[in-house]
TrEMBL record:
Keyword Nuclease recorded: no
UniProt protein name: Cysteine-rich receptor-like protein kinase 2
SUPFAM superfamilies listed in its UniProt record: Protein kinase-like (PK-like)
Membrane topology note: Single-pass membrane protein
Secretion signal, residue range per the UniProt entry: 1-26
Xref: Gene3D superfamilies: Gnk2 domain, C-X8-C-X2-C motif, Phosphorylase Kinase, domain 1, Transferase(Phosphotransferase) domain 1
Cited Pfam families: PK_Tyr_Ser-Thr, Pkinase, Stress-antifung
Length: 1105
């Protein structure tokens, strides 16, 4: 906070100067006027959506340099033609913002094959055909403005201004014009803007604008109107909506000299002021540090080193085997925990803290001093610490049974904890845990519910429950069915014990009392102990837990008070936390049972005041609906008096335009109930309205519209000064960031990169770069196996190898590369391609694998000639081999590994045509106590599970889905999304599902199997069973898919009956009609908050090989 004070002070010193710059800026005008979606569906969404993403990327790059862009990607019915154009008075920055808004909204038209959207600042259209020369069409329309009627003078002025704009636009090189005409004998103007798309010819532009000029008169006598034609846009208004265009006229030499002198002098003044402020802040910071004793760090560090608690860093390092990964116990919130053995034989648990003691010596000393002074048989004992090494270290006693969660959440170990032992643990924690009023009663309630049920909160061990544990317990308590959620390991249903069951039900009730929403209702920990210890005392009934519906997060009365709003009339900014994804219903509500009105004092006003108030309220409502901020204020003179009525309206920005309109309409009706009193307010769920006969409105600065030489000089001065200020600020921030990054990297060990590289080079896995380069004949293209980075080579000892060149340089990713090599080299199985070694000393990182001459499975099953070499028995062995390899990765290897890219091209065949899983470039490992991890999406379209593609949630079921697609391909020889023949146009999953439902699976068998020529009943049954298993593996819900070990049993044991599969995710690939889980697929077109660009998944990840 203090480190940014210098930059903040510099900005404060320049506020007055920089405020002038705002008067010359425009707005993005990104309000949506109208969007139209075509009625025809896309031909193939699998191709159309990536083409659309590419088109948006190309156009986005063009829009950064000009106000328009076009792009074409794809061919035939799946091609995508795009056009985007901003109106001529937008700056490049505003244009990019307007375009970003357009491309955010436009994908909502999918799966239709075309759409167009008009905004007040830009236009965008996409189609599957070339529309660039169209200027008229059936979707041409017009939109009229608010209900303010204008007189004949204004209407005549608008017509003349429209004609002038048409003439100017058709003769302009950019097809753009804007006209301002003063209404005769009135102090107001008519403003007209006209724009053609630049892909039109001059004659087409003229025809489009003439048609628009005839249509726009239909909006008269209203104060505003727009025409939205296929080839052009036109708008008129009685309000100045133009963005300022910088003046191009040259000024006199005297003006230039003045501008230069003022610019230089102001720059020097700013630098001097900034320097003085910086020196002052530095001095103040020094004084504050002296007062707080920050310079006693060395003294405190010495006290730690001299105390009886001190451990030598080298002793701890040696005890843990130099931080060997095999001794790693877990990853904590503030560091990593290792097991170690001291020279005297004592086993210890060592916690390496992320922060460095040199920066937190005071806090670290106080923390050690406090923990070391606490001693109890139910508290883990602190043996000592160290702060003399590169990181701070805490040394605890080692407990071999580790933590409670490893027992209650494990189906095998959980049987070791019967009910008596579990109840004893709960009581011990309460009686001896030294808990105070600061302890988290709510967390304890969740804990004891977990102990009774064996379920981890928010993650049930089975697929029976999907709510959080608190919600599950509450629902069963309400229904008097608590015994249904007891941990099966307690075996109360097999060996019933009435006393144990009563105790367990009582513990659940106490857990619900501890997790009540209101803190005042939760008992103290001493009361909880009495409740558990005394069986004969009745318990109070618990109230609702905080979230009775976890899916919608509907909040109860207490938690609804957490949202606060300020009105836009205030000059201060609103600091908010965006929780719209947590509370969707609350943020969209605009009315509710608590809506009310508050009337003012007892001063009664006459009929004129009441009429003026109603009209002012109507005007304010219409103004708020036109205004992007959902805010308006109105001042209206009461007829026949010299007094005014003042009105303010505001909608919450989380509402949609329709909800805002409905809320304000309701408020304007309610507020009339306060009349004839002099003041009134409406307090609605989604909006606020107030009127008064006293001016309560804050003044709003009036922007200057002058374009004189003085304005130009001010603009030049501000530009130069702001440039210097920006340079100074950037320099200060760069120095600060560089220093902070250096400190963080020191703490995290980033400067151990060279050490990591040395470990790799000294290990048995290391290959010399020159040896690999020689083996591949200097990366000869003739030895190239594929685009994934593989190449073939022959070592000096005659061994054939497959070499993978990685695109990143080891100097920047040595740690990650080392971990990846360590993970792959630690697994060995007959159905996994073996890693022989690696190299990171050359210009790129390299992985060396065994070479398999028969290459990949896809070269056989998708080839009409080679496919005949793989009979049914051979194919079945290949599928069994792949399944065994995946079972090893998921369940039997030391580290759980998910491959993420199982497909035919990644299944290699050895000389005997045995399957080996290859290419672990996308593989991910994670701890055994995690149900899933969230990660960036990577893989191949068509083989990725829907929940992974939609939400990035990675589990073993992602590999199960890919395996299901693979075995369907092996049986049918139909490549997913691309059939060998024209007979099938759907994906293989959809094709197999339809034939399975119709009982005609044998129709999609690979002709190379020749089952129709040489029928074999057993082979046909096996093949039909494999298709059945493939459909079970590709079910939409991951909970319904079998594990790989279960899948292997299904394939191996042909006599066991199989369950009936449910629908696959995409039941119609032509239109990609999505089921409930996969409707979030379009989330991969989200907007990047930083730049406004579309955040997409790289196509190199979708089609990496």
């Amino acid at each position: 906070m203090k480190k940014s004070a210098y930059t903040t002070s510099v900005l404060i010193a320049l506020i007055i100067v920089l405020q002038g710059l705002a008067r010359t800026e425009g707005v993005a005008r990104d309000q949506i006027v109208k969007m139209t979606c075509d009625q025809q569906k896309e031909h193939n969404q699998t191709l159309f959506i990536p083409n659309f993403v590419n088109v948006m990327g190309i156009i986005g790059n063009q829009m950064r340099n000009s106000l328009n862009g076009t792009a074409v990607v794809g061919t035939g019915p799946d091609s995508n033609y795009g056009l985007a154009q901003c109106y001529g008075d937008l700056s490049l920055q505003d244009c990019v913002l307007c375009y970003s808004e357009a491309r955010t909204v436009l994908p909502s038209c999918f799966p239709n094959n075309g759409a167009r959207i008009f905004l007040d600042g830009c236009f965008m259209r996409v189609q599957n055909y070339s529309f660039y020369h169209e200027y008229t069409g059936p979707n041409d329309t017009f939109v009229c403005g608010n209900t303010t009627r204008k007189n004949t003078m204004f209407q005549d002025t608008v017509k003349q201004a429209v004609l002038n704009a048409v003439t100017d636009a058709t003769t302009s090189s950019d097809y753009f014009a804007r006209v301002q005409l003063l209404v005769a004998s009135r102090n107001e103007s008519a403003y007209v803007l006209a724009q053609c798309w630049r892909t039109l010819s001059p004659s087409s532009c003229r025809a489009c604008l003439e048609n628009a000029s005839a249509t726009i008169t239909k909006c008269a006598p209203w104060s505003e109107g727009r025409v939205l034609n296929t080839g052009c846009f036109m708008r008129y208004s009685d309000t100045d909506f133009f963005n300022p265009i910088p003046a191009t006229s040259s000024s006199s030499n005297k003006g230039k000299i003045i501008a230069i002198v003022v610019s230089v002098v102001s720059s020097v003044v700013v630098l001097v002021v900034a320097l003085m402020i910086g020196l002052y802040i530095r001095k103040q910071r020094y004084i504050q540090k002296r007062r707080k004793g920050s310079y006693d760090v060395k003294k405190l560090s010495k006290m730690l080193n001299d105390s009886s608690l001190n451990f030598k860093y080298t002793t701890v390092e040696k005890a843990t085997g130099n931080w060997d990964e095999s001794n790693k116990l877990g990853q904590g919130g503030f560091g990593t925990v290792y097991k170690g053995v001291l020279p005297d034989g004592r086993e210890i648990a060592v916690k390496r803290l992320y922060f460095n003691n040199k920066f937190r010596a005071v806090d670290f000393y106080n923390e050690v001093n406090m923990i070391s002074s606490v001693e109890h048989r139910n508290l883990v004992r602190l043996l000592g610490c160290s702060c003399s090494g590169p990181e701070s270290i805490l040394v605890y006693e080692y407990l071999p049974n580790m933590s409670l969660d490893r027992f209650i959440f494990d189906p095998t170990r959980g049987k070791a904890l019967n009910w008596e032992k579990r109840f004893e643990i709960i009581i011990e924690y309460l009686a001896h845990g030294q808990l105070t009023e600061k302890a988290d009663v709510y967390s304890f309630g969740v804990l004891i519910l977990e102990v009774v049920t064996g379920m981890e909160n928010n993650k049930s061990k089975t697929t029976e429950y999907t709510d959080s544990l608190v919600a599950i317990a509450w629902n069963h308590f309400q229904q008097n069915k608590v015994e249904e959620i007891f941990d099966p390991n307690l075996m109360m249903h097999i060996y019933p014990n009435i006393n144990y069951q009563k105790e367990a039900i009582k513990v659940v009730q106490v857990g619900l009392l501890c997790t009540q929403e209101a803190p005042a209702l939760r008992p103290s920990m001493s009361s909880v102990l009495k409740m558990l210890a005394k069986d004969d005392e009745p318990l109070p009934l618990p109230a609702n837990p905080p979230f009775i519906d976890e899916k919608t997060m509907e909040l109860n009365d207490i938690t609804q008070k957490s949202n606060h709003y300020c009105y836009s009339d205030d000059s201060s900014s609103i600091a908010t936390v965006d929780n719209s994804h947590f509370f969707p219903r609350f943020f969209e509500d605009y009315k509710g049972p608590n809506d009310s009105i508050v009337c003012g004092n007892t001063t009664r006003k006459n009929a004129m005041f009441q009429q003026s108030t109603k009209q002012a309220a109507i005007n304010a409502v219409m103004g708020a609906l036109r205004n992007n901020a959902y805010f308006a204020r109105e001042e209206m003179l009461v007829q026949g008096t010299n007094k005014s009525v003042y009105v303010l309206v505001e909608c919450w920005k989380t509402l949609s335009p329709d909800s805002c309109r409905a809320c304000l309409k309701n408020a304007s009706t309610w507020i009339s109930k306060c009349l004839p009193w002099s003041e009134g307010r409406v307090l609605n769920t989604g909006c606020f309205m107030r009127y008064s006969d006293i001016n309560f409105l804050n003044p709003i600065p009036i922007a200057s519209t002058s374009s004189s030489n003085t304005g130009m000089i001010i603009a030049i001065v501000v530009s130069v000064v702001s440039s210097v200020v920006v340079f100074v600020i950037v320099l200060i921030i760069a120095i600060y960031v560089r220093k902070r990054r250096y400190v963080q990297q020191k703490r995290k060990g980033y400067y151990d990169v060279e050490k990591m590289a040395k470990i790799l080079n000294d290990s048995s896995l290391n290959f010399k770069y020159s040896a690999i380069e020689k083996a591949t004949e200097n990366w000869d293209e003739a030895n190239k196996l594929g685009q994934g980075g593989f190449g073939t080579g022959v070592l000096s000892d005659g061994r054939e190898i497959a070499v993978k060149r990685l695109f990143f340089n080891n100097k920047f990713r040595a740690a990650d590369f080392y971990n990846e090599v360590n993970m792959i080299s630690s697994i060995e199985h007959k159905n996994l391609v073996r890693l022989l070694g690696c190299n990171c000393s050359g210009p790129e990182s390299i992985l060396v694998y065994e070479y398999l001459p028969n290459m990949s499975l896809d070269l056989f099953i998708f080839d009409e000639i080679k496919g005949k070499e793989l009979g049914w028995e051979r194919r079945f062995e290949i599928m069994i081999g792949v399944a065994e390899g995946l079972v090893y990765l998921h369940e039997n290897s030391k580290t759980r590994i998910i491959h993420r890219d199982i497909k035919a091209s990644n299944i290699l065949l050895d000389l005997r045509l045995r399957a080996k899983i290859a290419d672990f470039g996308l593989a991910r490992s994670f701890q055994g106590d995690k149900s899933h991890i969230s990660t960036a999406i990577a893989g191949t379209l068509g083989y990725m599970a829907p929940e992974y593609l939609a939400r990035g949630q990675l589990t073993e079921k992602v590999d199960v889905y890919s395996f299901g697609v693979l075995i369907l391909e092996v049986v049918t020889a139909i490549e997913n999304n691309r059939s060998k023949t024209t007979e099938y146009t759907d994906s293989i999953v959809s094709t197999a599902w339809k034939h399975f439902k119709q009982g005609t699976v044998e129709k999609i068998f690979d002709p190379n199997l020749m089952m129709h020529i040489y029928p074999n009943i057993n082979f046909q049954k096996d093949a039909i069973r494999v298709v059945h298993v493939g459909l079970l593996c590709t079910q939409e819900s991951p909970c319904l898919r079998p594990s790989m070990s279960t899948t292997l049993k299904m394939l191996a044991k042909t006599d066991e009956p199989l369950p009936v599969p449910s629908k696959p995710p995409f039941i119609d690939e032509n239109t990609m009609e999505l089921n409930s889980v996969t409707q979030k697929l379009l989330s991969y077109c989200d907007i990047d908050n930083d730049s406004g660009s579309i955040a997409t998944v790289s196509h190199s990840h979708f089609y990496p090989r």
